[in-house]
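REVIEWER CHECKLIST
Item 1: Sequence provided? yes
Item 2: Single chain? yes
Item 3: Sequence as submitted:
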Amino acid sequence: MPVSPRQALALAALALIALASCATPFGRQYEYEEEVYLDLDGSATIVVNSSLAALAALHGLDVPLDPAAPIDRDAIRDMYMSPVTAVTRVSRPWRRDGRRFVQIRVEVSDVRQLPSVKPFAWAEYGMTTLGDGLQFVQQLGPV
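Item 4: Structure as written out by the authors:
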């Protein structure tokens, strides 16, 4: 079935819109991201995906300027380790758009204790009973 010039133009416009909207098909890409996986007992696993530049800017990590320099994963682990947290993983670095990233997995037995750990001190974490359920609140900002 032949396509009219008007239909071809409409299809081309739709293709351009679809292409433009899929510049990042898996969603926005961030420099720093924290995912909190909370259990009903208040324990949690926190997964941090971050560029090294963001770890330096947000948490003071000493990052070598040479992009080929080795990354001190123990220094990253030490930054997140505390009496209330256990670091279960610091990934090998990967690159996105020329920037180096790592993933840090942290376990905590009581999410409300996270502000005592420097990288999480920018938030308050609360968990209270609300009717028949639980309410989790994370409030960002100075605490």
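Item 5: Key structural point noted by reviewer: The two ends are 66 Å apart (CA to CA).
Item 6: Recommendation: ____
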